[in-house]
Design a protein that fits this description.
This protein folds into two domains: 250 residues, P-loop containing nucleotide triphosphate hydrolases (Rossmann fold, 3-Layer(aba) Sandwich), CATH 3.40.50; 32 residues. Helices cover 38% and strands 17% of the residues. It has a seven-stranded parallel β-sheet, sandwiched between helices. It has a two-stranded antiparallel sheet with strand order 1-4. Strands 2-3 form a two-stranded antiparallel sheet. The chain starts with 9 loop residues before the first helix and ends with a helix.
Length: 300
């Protein structure tokens, strides 16, 4: 693959449809992704060493970052990922990822869908390898929201995004969606889907929408996600990263504090000082303020 220019015109980046325009911070997230591509595909194919060196320039401590190995079914994660058994996996082997640490309400879904359109454009132009795209989301309601936004995108653009349920995985479709917590390393049954059924040798562009949230098996599932994107790229969107590897691979930081200080958050009047002391209205006002405070603290 030849050396490529990954610049895309600003007017092409900023419009979701002809009627809907992205905010500057959303456009910036896409520009940073294109910069990641420029570095990663500098030599014509994905270069983990090039990306790793860039992370080292920003934070030398990433050289010490490792994740513990664990079993995936009957095999160790390190063997499935690296072809050899190790007690720990070095960060250097896991740099094929972009994290987007963005507040709830900042429009992550719009960025994801524009990202898909960009991936398909770059694939068509042979600037990046041709791989299937998979979106994993935490709930049916969020999946329906994503599908609704894709419908909106399709109505406002000539290039269409055709999305398929991952249960229907095949050789022909290129964009899929599924619930993250239904991806397992055990037998496929009902809604649960064994990752081997669509593994494709880890040849995916994987988009995670708050997919780190889940049950006690979540640490295993994160390794499944890494395997699914082993020979591709993982794009991880969340408002609440807690794992160090997600934090250090963040290419767009627009979490709650920046979201609010940039003037995008809603201003809320917590208490009405004119309400009579001891009245039911005052009690309601106090309860509402405590609920909002709890929600903000949890989000932060």
């Amino acid at each position: 693959m030849e050396l490529n220019n990954f610049s895309i015109r600003d007017d092409e980046l900023k419009f979701f449809t002809k009627e809907k325009q992205l905010f500057d911070y959303q456009v910036d997230a896409l520009k940073k992704t294109l910069k990641f591509f420029e570095i990663a595909f500098k030599n014509g194919k994905f270069d983990k060493e090039e990306i790793y060196q860039k992370y080292l320039e920003f934070d030398g401590s990433v050289s010490e970052l490792k994740i513990k190995d664990s079993l995936i079914g009957e095999e160790k994660f390190s063997y499935l990922y690296l072809g050899k058994d190790q007690e720990e996996i070095n960060f250097k082997d896991l740099v094929n990822r972009c994290s987007y640490w963005m507040a709830t309400g900042s429009g992550k879904t719009l960025i994801m869908i524009k990202l898909i359109a960009i991936l398909k454009k770059l694939i068509k132009e042979k600037k990046i390898p041709n791989k299937k795209i998979l979106i994993l989301a935490p709930s049916n309601s969020i999946i329906e929201q994503i599908k609704a936004h894709i419908d909106e995108f399709n109505k406002g653009n000539t290039e269409k995004l055709n999305i398929t349920d991952l249960k229907e995985f095949n050789d022909f479709d290129d964009l899929y969606i599924y619930r993250a917590d239904n991806i397992v390393a055990s037998e496929t049954k009902e809604k649960q889907l064994n990752f081997y059924d669509f593994y494709n040798n880890g040849d995916w562009y994987l988009i995670l929408d708050e997919a780190h949230k889940g049950d006690k098996d979540e640490s295993i599932r994160q390794k499944l996600f890494a395997l699914i994107a082993k020979n591709g790229i993982m794009f991880n969107f969340s408002a609440t990263f807690t794992e160090e590897i997600d934090k250090v691979t963040t290419i767009k930081d627009f979490k709650l504090d920046k979201f609010l200080t940039s003037g995008y958050g809603k201003k809320i009047a917590l208490l009405d000082s004119s309400v009579a002391t001891g009245s039911e209205e005052q009690k309601d006002s106090i309860i509402k303020s405590l609920m909002i405070l709890a929600a903000l603290k949890r989000e932060y």
